[in-house]
Amino acid sequence: MTPEILTYADMGLKWPILSLLTYIPVIGAIIIMLFLRRDNTIRWFANIVVLVDFVLSLRLIPGFIIDRHALQFVEKAPWIESLGAQYFLGVDGISILLVLLTTFLGVLAVLSSWTAIQDRVKEYYIFMLLLQTGMLGVFFSLDFFLFYVFWEIMLVPMYFLIGVWGGPRKLYAAIKFFLYTLAGSVLMLLAILGLYFLHYRQTGELSFEVMKYYGMDIPMHIQRWLFLAFFVGFAIKVPMFPFHTWLPDAHVEAPTAGSVILAGVLLKMGTYGFVRFSLPLFPQATMWFLPYGITLAVIGIVYGALTAMMQPDMKKLVAYSSVSHLGFVMLGLFALNQQGVEGGILQMINHGLSTGGLFLVVGLIYERRHTRMIKDFGGLSHQMPLYAIMFMIITLSSIGLPSLNGFIGEFTILLGGFKALWMKPVVALGFLPKEWATNMSTLMVLLATSGIVLGAAYMLWMYQRVMFGKLENPKNMELKDLNLREVMTLIPIIILCFWIGIYPKPFLRFMDAAVMNTVLMTNPQAALAEMKQMREMQMNAAPGQGMEAPSGMQLPPGHPPISMPGQHMMPGQQSAMPPGHPPISMPGQTPAMPAGHEAMMEQFRAGESHGMRRGLTFMEPAAAGHGEAPEAAHADPHGHSGDK
Amino acid sequence: MATASEYMVLSSVLFAVGFVGFTLRRNILVMFMSAELMLNSANLNLIAYSTEWGNPTGQTFALFVIAVAAAEAAVGLAILMLLFRARATVSAADWRRLKG
Amino acid sequence: MQIPPIDFTAVYPEVIVALVGLLVLAVDIFIKPQRKTSLSAIALVGLVLAFLTTMLIWDRNETAFSGMVAVDSYAQFFKLIFIFSAALTVLISPRYLSLNNISVGEYLELVLFCTVGMMVMASANDLVTIYIGLELMAISIYLMAGFQRDNPRSCEASMKYFLLGSFASALLLYGMSFFYGITGTTSLQGFTLSPNSNIIDSEVMTRLPLVLMTVGFAFKIAAVPFHMWTPDVYEGAPTPLTAFMSVGPKVAAFAVIMRVYMKTFGALVPDWVQMFTLLSILTMIYGNVVAVAQKSMKRMLAYSSIAHAGYLLIGIVSAGTATEMTGGKAMSATFASESMMSVMVYLFAYMFMNLGTFAVVISLGRADNPRDSLADYAGLAKRRPLTALLMTILLLSLMGFPGTFGFIGKFYIFKAAIVTGNLTLAVVGVLMSVVAAFYYVRVVLYMYMREPEGEVLAEGDAISSTMYAIVVTTMFTLLFGVAPGFIIDMARYTIERMLA
Fold it and tell me: Of C206, C236, C256, which residue is a domain's last?
């Protein structure tokens, strides 16, 4: 049931690197609080701390195993034993890029605050560092209790960053941010408790371990509620369309570094939550929710883009563009296939880079002129050529120009979207008549594509109004171009934008195995179809050669369509059975061993027929009703009486 | 000899009078007396049941209640004196400082 | 007739606290006014002794005084809470007392006697004992609430508390008299649903003691709609006493409620679960919503303490529901004890964080100005950074934020609710804790993000025993927030032995 776990010691490290990464910032914050007094010392020190953190996080790359899904650099220790809560940190292909993004943007955000923050410097850096700890903790936690702790703790420093160093309406924005996010997360807490209880009833074991909840047998009516509770928590964070109203306020009022972190990392926690928790934990409920989810995502894309176009304030424009871009990410995730999810994750990174970059760029000009109104500017390219170039590149990256990162992300997402909708049109829009659905789902993707066009329009229009034309405003005559420190904050982003845009493979390879695993758990039908396709290609091309992508993949045992949780088949025994036979029950087996290709293919073949059978129940909603067939297949959990 | 249920009727009446007096009247002294009335209805119950059950628990309980009620009365009247000195009124309706 | 044997060792903690109370009173007569602080020292030493004796009899599991007093770990657990809260109250008081010219000796003596009352309640195994403990506690508080004799507000608070308190205990007592009528005994073990007496034989009548006693207890824990005394009394009473009374009587009442309702009224679970569900929902909603509108810290904390009673009632309801659960006796017993354990842990957390928060309010007060309005907190982070930081932590804990003890308490409460299927309560609870977050965070907002308006009066001196109390409570709040295992195991142990 649990994927392979490699502790940091297994991976040849002497020290718990994830804990170090997480706590270096907080230790730095404590040192600042207790020992440092002078503002400049504090600035230097904070920069060094985040830089050390970033450099250390690079250490995760060399040893990282990419050819199979495994939790790596794991630290596991009991924490509150009577509760089953553990101190359980680990990274896998889904989280590693986000972790790197966090430490990377952390460096830039702290560096960019050097001159921008003159008031209460000490507290500012303390909160920045605490925030970093919280964010890393969220991405590392593989125990729900620990996850929730970090998830909430992160709110406090962000609340202070907005509330103390923010703009004119900072108090309103800070409290709105705080309450919105809190409201979402308390509902999530209830859902976590619900899962915990279900897991306890089914296994008699008290545990908050996320991986143990995967493939759990949850009756559909409960699954829906749990999914919705998680959905609200994550959708507020993302933010998805109806829950987005806190975002523009928070972004506009937050200091530049706060906006960078907020857009770059905090929003990703919502989308990360979907990939890590919502989708694999509640596959049937995800299927049930898919039409609404995709609709909301598309509304978000179009609404965000249209609203962004109307904004007179550059920061607000970028904020609304975030709503649009995150809609893309959600669309990708809801495509529920390899391309879609990978594109979604890659687009999280891209959005972190380009929107983080945009906020930095806007912050630079705000620092000089103390205004962000587009109408106050014009013709800046004459005065600040270097700035204009940087701004241009980041704008183009945000738009998704080929050879820049945004293109890769959006392209992959749309690819995934088309594929998913083409493959299972009725699933995508189950509430519509069948014949409409194909058209409607194509329409959805087309609408989403229009978001790209609109995106290009509002970004370029803004760029044009700010940079080109005559330099008329006398106040703008005095503007200085970027200094070295400011260039230093933007260059790394630009390099990464080009890198991902031209050669994204190293980034995608990080997540291949993990995403495949997630897709397999959530939407085995799509995953298996893909594998089948791949197998055929491989057989046609060169018989005898091994498969590339899915090697080392494991069929998650007890994934929903197979109604026997907690079982996994041994590849050897599997091949002895006729194809399509349900796997025999072998409780307690762990799928940790890397299987041979032949055996793996047998496995897929066996799982495939189940996937298809389950797919059919979704294909014919009139006959079966949504989710009822899988529900019926589940053993009634109330029948399990706990034996404690 | 009256039966326990007759005593119960009497105690209920006492209790009802006390309850209504407490909730409707605004004179602190009257409210205080009403509360005492309620206590005594409980005492009456206890003693009647004690006889009926043939064990002394109820009567001892009643003794405790009387003692406690005396202490309570002493404290209550002391507070009332304080309040009267400060406000020169014994009407709860005149309480303005605390808004409730 | 033979006098039954009396085992005083069973009540050593109570005896010690009571004796120390008398000692303080006696020493007070002979001591010079400027050396009154030594009285606090005596009281603290006495409380430490009581703490040690409580630990000594920790493991005993029996009844004493002919079954009137239960000597079990459950009682000792609550005695620990009372001793802690009394000690913290002793710590936070001197500053306020000297500012307001309140006599230290009598004040401490009453605090200690009140503590005795609460301890008696926690170990009560008989209605008479409950009543005596309750009245001892209540009468001490009536007196303390009126301690500022020249302050009409204090007198009014005292009077109001007195009137409603005696009304509540009259209801309680009337209920107890029916209890006796039905069962012929006042022992908590004696209740039965099928009375065989010729006095009371109807089914309805057997519910009468339950209803009346519930109303009586609801007054004590300040559950809506029996809360109306709370804000006024909390506001009018001397602040250290407000702190004490927002914790002590509430904890004591919950100690009694859990014992009485789970053990004695075990047969009436469906009835009282309904009542408590209603009370809980009303209390959470009303307490939190009205707290939002408050401008005075004391009143805000008063309403917040009402709201906390609502969360605690969730735990009680869950315990009740658990006993009715299908799925095996062992499981329902586990869930029942888990639910009650959550209430005990929450009470422990509540004691630290609430006393700490009040201590902050006290530490900022001045002789001429209590400085307890929200606006007085503007810019506090600049004037008193440490106090503001500690206050923030305490408020986060009251909010139930992870990393603090308050979170552990809330977490267990909600876990109990989910596990026993009380979804409505859990959802109302978490949504209301978001509302609560608003008014707690607003204080943080004032402290860190607002500039004070007009001339700023300096707060009282930062270094005082009050400050120690703040630091201690915050430390415990954080410590048990990160490593709560000890308290949880302790609570679980006591509750399992009590229910067994």
Answer: C256
Domain boundary among C256, C278, C298: C256
ipTM computed for the complex: 0.92
B65: in domain: yes
Check whether residue C211 and residue C326 sit in a common domain.
no
Beta carbons of C311 and C417 less than 8 angstroms apart:
no
pLDDT digits (tens, 9 = 90+) for C425-456: 999 999 999 999 999 999 999 998 888 776 66
**Rounded mean pLDDT, C105-134:** 93
Q: Domain range for residue C42? A: 1-256
Would you say residue A434 has pLDDT above 80? no
- C-beta atoms of B68 and C131 within 8 A: yes
Q: B98 and C236: CB-CB below 8 Å?
A: yes
With an 8 Å CB cutoff and a minimum of 3 pairs, decide whether chains C and B touch: yes
In the predicted structure, residue A492 carries a pLDDT above the cut 60: yes
Question: Could you tell me which residue, A579 or C263, shows the higher pLDDT?
Answer: C263
Domain that holds residue B29: 4-94
User: With an 8 Å Cβ cutoff, is B89 touching chain C?
Assistant: no
Residue B66 touches partner C, C-beta closer than 8 Å: no
C270/C248 same-domain check: no
Q: What pLDDT shows up at residue C462?
A: 56
In chain B, the number of structural domains is 1
Whether B83 sits inside 8 A of C159 (CB atoms) is: yes
Contact C163/B35, CB-based, under 8 Å? yes
Quick check: B82 and C149 CB within 8 A? yes
C-beta separation of A331 from A348 below 8 A: no
Residue C275 and residue C212 in one domain: no
69-88 in chain B: CB under 8 A from chain C: 71-72, 75-76, 79-80, 82-83, 86-87
pLDDT band at A438 (very low <50, low <70, confident <90, very high): low
One-letter amino acid of C362: I
User: In chain B, what residues touch C228 (CB-CB under 8 Å)?
Assistant: 100
Question: What pLDDT is recorded for position A469?
Answer: 79
Per the domain annotation, does B35 fall within a domain? yes
Clarify whether residues C169 and C100 are in a common domain: yes
In this prediction, residues A298-302 reach a mean pLDDT of: 90
pTM comes to 0.86
Q: Are B68 and B20 in contact (CB under 8 A)?
A: no
- Among C323, C388, C343, C334, smallest CA distance to C361 is for C388
Percentage of residues in chain A having pLDDT higher than 70: 80
The DSSP line for A283-328 is HHHHHHHHHHHHHHHHHHHHHHHHHHHH-SBHHHHHHHHHHHHHHH
C84 CA: distance to closest CA in chain B (Å): 27
pLDDT at A436: 59
Over residues C103-128, mean pLDDT:
92
User: A-chain residues within 8 Å CB-CB of C419?
Assistant: 193, 197
Co-location of C322 and C374 in the same domain: yes
The one-letter code for the residue type at C38 is: S
Q: Quick check: is B99 in a domain?
A: no
Number of domains in chain C: 2
Query: Do C310 and C369 fall into the same domain?
Result: yes
Q: Out of C158, C159, C199, whose CB is closest to B49?
A: C199
Q: What is the DSSP string of C427-445?
A: HHHHHHHHHHHHHHHHHHH
Domain ranges for chain A: 284-519
Would you say residue B27 lies in a domain? yes
A69: which 2 tokens?
């899904």
Structure tokens at C235: 């506001």
Q: Which of residues 122-151 of A touch C (CB under 8 A)?
A: 148-151
Binary contact (A174, C431; C-beta < 8 A): no
- Burial state string for C150-184 with b = 16 or more CB within 10 A and e = fewer than 16: ebbbbbbbbbbbbbbbbbbbbbbbbbbbbbbbbbb
CATH code assigned at B90:
1.10.287.3510
